Amino acid sequence: MSCLQEAEYCTKRYGYFTNFYEEVEYGIKIQELDIVCKVALEEYNTCSNNDALLKDWLIKYFDIGYNKLAIFYYDHLDYSVNDDEG
């Protein structure tokens, strides 16, 4: 069977391959936020003791923090329990 004849065959049959590249692409998008996050952390350090400035900071970075990075955080949390810690 040829992927050129039946594209559905290849997407189902080789889903593990396309899923891998989707995860790579997702990681690249997260890394692209690195510079923005550095700036956000620097700004946070200057406004964290001022409620009015902190509110403005939260509004400014809400989209990145909540919509982009929080999803990454939950997707990649390590839920395993280490019995050696205690």
Parts with pLDDT < 50 across at least 5 consecutive residues: none
Number of helices: 4
Element pattern in H and E: HHHH
The description of the largest β-sheet is:
none
Rg over CA atoms: 20 Å
Structural class: mainly alpha
Instruction: Report strand %.
Output: under 5%
Could you give a short description of this structure?
The protein is an all-alpha fold and 86 residues long. The protein contains four helices and no strands. It has helices at residues 7-13, 15-31, 34-47, 51-75.
Task: Tell me what you see in this structure.
The protein has 4 helices and no strands. It has helices at residues 7-13, 15-31, 34-47, 51-75. The radius of gyration is 20 Å and the shape is elongated.
Q: Which features characterize this protein?
A:
single chain; 86 residues; mainly alpha; 4 helices; 0% strand
Which SSEs are present, and which pair or pack?
Layout: H1 7-13, H2 15-31, H3 34-47, H4 51-75
